[in-house]
Amino acid sequence: MLLLVIASVLLSFVCSLSPEDVAKLRLSEDEVTVTAFVDFVSTYNKNYATSEEMDYRFQVFKQGLALAQVLNENSQKLGGATYGVTKFSDLTPKEFKEMYLMTQFEIPQELLNDKKYHNVSVSKPVQAGVTAFDWVGRGVLTGVYDQGACGSCWAFSATENLESVFARKHGVLRNLSPQQIVSCDGKYGCNGGSPTQAWTYIYEQKGLDTLQCYPYVAVAQACEFKPTCVGATLTEWSWIYPNNENDMAAWLSEGAPISVCLRADNWQFYKGGVVLEAQCPATTLSDHCVLITGYNLDTNPRYWHIRNSWGTAWGEAGYIRLQWGANTCGVACYPASVTVA
Q: Model confidence over 176-190: pLDDT tens digits?
């Protein structure tokens, strides 16, 4: 209850000051943290049912702020990403994983080696002239989605790749329905899966509905697939040169955005910049699936440009950059894409 009173007083007080007066303030460490929490609650429109819940979330926020500061200090020494307050700052790491990530998984080696699912034909190194490429702004990407508190990233990654490949093939960009995958796949829902599983389902059902016809609700419900609402179909899916970032980039620049699954448990406090391999080491264990839209090899550090599904209020307007060439976060382990007729 005390925190609630302090927060209200601070919010009223700070809002009444001019920017010059605010700059002159010399607050104690606790007061600075409370002020940061008040700003966080206002910025992200947080609502807590009771004063006890607000007090608890403040303590979680305080611990998260300390962790973000350590991440930021270590990253800045290496010229990497910036970490700080995000919309997830009032969640414990365990809550964040349970609500926004998946149970870690590793795709069986036999599936990676299955000749039924083959690499596509493009196979050449990145040449001068295509050292930087991005599908952003080229008419093949829908707006950034927000999966909410549901481990449905796998469905979003699969959907986004299909949207882009379909747009590349037919010149029509359609918002498709990740909810159909979440509700109708019958196995994974909000508990996580892989894009390959989603595409297999779409192939078997002969299509994915449009988002307008089958809206997203962030929870697995009874299946309401409508064959008359199908917005796109696929003919197969393929691995795109796993563990070969050079060929991945070459394929992306000529093909389409690539679906990948990787490790994202340390993305909770990401604000912007390039996440380095030193802070997110290579791993075959994945807990999140996203979409690579581009890369830039002309910068230092070189990076992949990746679209996430946590809304535009997170990261760089919903995107994140990962160091290229180091399998950062395991980004090169499971790259894949569909083919459409």
A: 999 999 999 878 899
